[in-house]
Amino acid sequence: KAGVTQTPRYLIKTRGQQVTLSCSPISGHRSVSWYQQTPGQGLQFLFEYFSETQRNKGNFPGRFSGRQFSNSRSEMNVSTLELGDSALYLCASHRVVGTEAFFGQGTRLTVV
Amino acid sequence: AQTVTQSQPEMSVQEAETVTLSCTYDTSESNYYLFWYKQPPSRQMILVIRQEAYKQQNATENRFSVNFQKAAKSFSLKISDSQLGDTAMYFCASLNYGGSQGNLIFGKGTKLSVKP
After folding, report:
1. pLDDT tens-digit series, residues B72-91
2. A99: distance to nearest CA of chain B, Å?
């Protein structure tokens, strides 16, 4: 069974640009959640999707958005990038909402 | 609000010895999971062990075991016969079971170094 796939693995963007990150969950899993990891703030919850609907959202500005497709794949978008958005973005796959998380390898975003 | 606290930012242990990582949590929910995740330098977050709150028996996975004290809201991880490959950041996390909100709440992590 394939694991959680996140693309791309590494990304360098300039301030003001926008970026889209992708996550394919484990086959059969219907829920995807996203986390931002930084040295200062640790692991912070961004949002959670189930059956193409956002079920829960963390305390992030509206520049952070996401969506889930009918095949459970998810994307997150960050617009008007700021230096502080530099982080490791982790996607987690859940069988359904409220079950254990299996993580991808993450996307390392650097904003310059 | 749920919180998870790991009071040991860094720890070190000699290879083959035993080490215990501490975690306390606070939740008003009655049904929840607790987890320990390992994040090695590769940054892949790996599930080490999980505990359902309704189970009194402590979970065990090979060299990894937990001491779950529900009343004290304590959830420590014991690593026996430590190996060099155990060197990593370890995160304690809680998750409401089957609720409408399925996000993990993480502690700040403990950096474990296993020395030869």
Report:
1. 999 999 999 999 999 999 99
2. 7
